[in-house]
Amino acid sequence: MRQMIIGNWKMHGLLESGTDLAREITSAIEPVLAARDVVLAPPFTLLGHLAPLLSRHAVRLGAQDCHAEPEGAYTGDISAVMLADLGVSHVILGHSERREHHHETNAGIRKKVQRAREHGLCPVVCIGEGAHQREDKRAEAWLTTQIVECLPPEFDGILAYEPIWAIGTGVAATPEDIESRLTFLHGALSRHLETDDKSHRVLYGGSVKPEDAASILAVSGVGGVLVGGASLSAKSFLGIAQAGLSLAP
Ligand code: PGA
User: Fold this and answer.
1) Which ligand 1 atom sits closest to the C-alpha of 92?
2) Cα angle vertex 114, ends 134, 101, to 5°?
3) Which residue among the candidates 97, 129, 162, 179 is catalytic per the annotation?
4) What is the band of 248 on the pLDDT scale with cuts at 50, 70, 90?
5) Quick check: is 118 catalytic?
6) How far apart are CA 7 and CA 39, in angstroms?
């Protein structure tokens, strides 16, 4: 399965700085695309502006959230239909920052997942345990609940395993920890979805940096990485996207 590298810009980037970053990335991305899929998820305000540039370079356009309804009286919200209309192909759902700051629930995320699919978007659903669950050895039960409650039985999108203690902390999970979690998650997914083991893409996210990207991307069962902070510099994002590939000079 081709691996996927997603850059989650979060709430960063203005017209000029976002365009410069996207230009720098796209100008050097072509060799990577022979082996991996690349998605950039800028803030909503830059989606329409960056769509033509990314599409010319076969880089996919991602959004960082969508509403569960296609339209209506929801001031300030953006629907999956609106995203699809702009050329968005992927949407990150259930990110831990949205769960924390917007009180998103598993049930609400599930509705968004269904709506995204209905409008042709590929959902990238984030799950992950916090430090407490990890210390109390409750991580697997927590992750299983997130899978069961967030993913409808017909789910065919992407899962992103993002341990909360690793996001934005500079401390990524070790390749050994990622491998054992991914083995667990592939099993939990195949039980919940009643499909073959490993048929789904499961990404790792949380403080991925160019230095450790090759070892993370070499982990068995890893479908790619979701990159936050390090996606805000073209050099570090490209370093991650190219990690472990033997690219022609
Ligand atoms: P980080 O963020 O790479 O800055 O840890 C990852 C994410 O939140 O998706």
Assistant:
1) 9
2) 45
3) 162
4) low
5) no
6) 6
Per-residue pLDDT of 158-179, as tens digits, reads 999 999 999 999 999 999 999 9
* 8 Å CB contact between 221 and 202: yes
- CA–centroid distance, 227 to ligand 1, in Å, is 5
Which of 123, 212, 125, 127 minimizes the C-alpha distance to 161? 127
Q: Which of 31, 42, 49, 55 lies closest to 6 in space, CA to CA?
A: 42
Q: What is the CATH topology of the domain spanning 3-242? A: TIM Barrel (3.20.20)
Global pTM value: 0.96
Q: How far apart are alpha carbons 155 and 136 in whole angstroms?
A: 30
CA atoms within 13 A of residue 31's CA, in its CB half-sphere:
12
What ranges do the domains of the chain cover?
Answer: 3-242
The reply to whether 162 belongs to the active site is: yes
Whether 32 contacts 38, CB under 8 Å: yes
d(CA 51, CA 106): 30
Tokens 């799950």: give the residue. 127
